Here is the input.
Amino acid sequence: ADPNNGTVPTPLTNYLDTQYFGEISIGSPAQMFNVVFDTGSANLWVPSHSCSPFSTACFTHNRYDSSQSHTHVENGTGFSINYASGTIRGFLSEDVVVVGGLPVVQVFAEATSLSAMPFIFAKFDGVLGMGYPNVAIDGITPVFDQIMSQHILKEEVFSIYYSRDPKHSPGGELLLGGTDPNYYTGNFNYLETREMGKWEVTMKGVAVGAEMMFCAEGCTAVIDTGSSYITGPASSISMLMKTIGAQLDETGYKVNCDIVKMLPSVTFHLGGQDYSLTHEDYIIWQSQFEGDVCIVSFRGLDVPPPTGPIWILGANFIARYYTEFDRRNNRIGFATAV
Ligand SMILES: CCN(C(=O)c1cnc(C)nc1NCc1ccco1)[C@H]1CCCNC1
Here is the structure.
């Protein structure tokens, strides 16, 4: 009998409220990796043992060594993925991947070059894409699709909890097959995904305090569990920052910690519901030796058409709103996180 009744939990680590990752293994005997479970992409990649010693980002992370795995199957097809924030290049391999104790035979990428920015800052080794198959590079069947085809999950959904307080343990939870009542209160509100095959919805507006300021004519919101921040079109974000008195410096937008308590809420109108973030949700308060620094967890990002312009709702949104990704009904559900 399945102790988890058709659901599979994976505890996540929370690093400074900006990176959330969980452990998987690849190969026999198991080689362990920390990966981001990322709804904004659909491929699995980890650093390769054969990466160049000059690739600092590769060398400072766990690397997959195919020669040490007796279940490794050679593939060798080229692979590259470009995020807005960085580039990964490598080649494909196949091996047994274990997620939450579930083994799947999976084609994944061994990264032989990782752009230093941003991956030297990554506390995780790689990325496990939880996106739809049609956005998977090289047409590879994603991990969650491989798991669904085993017909062991109670429901064809997965849910994400991100803790807001780094001292919490666990720092978060990925639950395959259902939702975890330990981490949300109230009911779920559901939104249809905007177009087949992407974890994105139609947003009806963004308000600052009581004033509707952006996206009044409707826009696209990507729900991206692999992004730390909320991003919007650069022009909109810079107007938003001016409204709250934030200054842009080389690492992002900052506000004077003394005024944080007076900051307005920012509200996202999604599917007939208002999802508000207060300053506690969108300010990352860092105590540094030269005094406290208050970082606004919004970033400007201009995604070129046809994909953009878009807003990306990342970890700071998900930490406030527990999120269910429903592949059966192509919808996303939000409930208030505890
Ligand atoms: C993983 C690549 N991503 C990052 O935004 C990213 C980059 N670099 C670092 C160091 N961290 C990142 N995300 C940390 C994180 C974990 C959970 C929440 O945010 C994005 C790229 C676009 C698709 N979605 C994922």
